[in-house]
Amino acid sequence: MNPKLLPGIMMAALSVICVILLLTGFVKALRKTSYTPKQQTRTVVTTAIVIAGWMALTGLLAVKGFFANFNALPPRPALLILGPLPFVLAVAFSKKFTAILKATPPQWLIGMQAFRIVVELLLLRAYTIGLLPKQMTFEGGNFDILSGILAIPIAIMVSKKYNPVLVRVFNVVGVLLLLNILVIAILSMPTSLRVFVNEPSAALVGEFPFIYLPGVLVVMAYSLHIFSLRQAAILKQNV
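Below the sequence we write its predicted structure tokens.
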């Protein structure tokens, strides 16, 4: 196997693993709600189909070079990140999902963010073999690994005693760190917006299978933050 393919393949594998973990936690939370077994099954199956469909469409478009076309603005990988945001917000504030968030252990939404440690290690590997620019890693301007590192002890603390202030601070910091690397990535892509002109560019994020970084893992990261913040608001109302 070409070693230059490994970071992308592992990024895709990490996406699948994270989705499986997400669905597993979703199933456990549903069992604690008033949903009937039939409703639980339908909800899980529908969610799995939507996620699988999104991943299949994303992969297909990437293989055909859709996201690797950087002539248009904004860069297409950025649209891939922002596209699901309205849907995620609609789900987070829906009545049905509110019931699920009430049954979800708060530490689980935080602890899941630990996957970002693996993401950053894969980005570092991609840089060391000449696939990505330095600023995309924690050796440059990307400090998103802190979100993954902090997620572990904070999840442990929250599991022992829920602290809404700590939860909000963690999520806000996590969102800011995510925004930081997203801006760096966009400014490193081969477009007219490019600010970081060192080579290589960040064009790799528009190629298959690395496309699952913006298409799945980034979406999952900000979704977990949104769900955790929404849960904190719900728990506050119930106090």
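The chain has a mean pLDDT of 94.
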